[in-house]
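Morning!

This is the sequence you dropped in the shared folder:
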Amino acid sequence: MSGNGAPDKETIYARVVEILDEVLNLQSKGTTVAPETRFIEDLGAESLDMAQFVMSLEDQFQKSIKDEELMGLKSVQDAVDYIHKRLAEPDE
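The structure's back. C-alpha cells below.
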C-alpha cells in the first residue's frame, strides 16, 4: 500500500493476474503472465472475456473503466498502470 492507502503497483499486478486467471482459466492451460503479456494476442482473450475481466477489475478496485479507455489497455502492464492512476484520483 502506498501512502494514500491505495495499493502499490505490485499489489495491483498480483490482483490483475489473479482476475485474468479466473476469467481465462490460465493455470489449467499452464499459461504464465508477465507485465508485457497482451490480452488478445498472447492470451487469446475475446470480447466477452474482456468484458468479464473489466467488470471484475471494477468490482475489485471500486473504479469504473470507460469503454474508450478500455481500448487503450492492451497488456497487463497497461491495466496495472491505468488502475494505479485511477486509484490516485479523487472519487467522482
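Headline: The mean pLDDT is 90.

More detail when I'm at my desk.
O.
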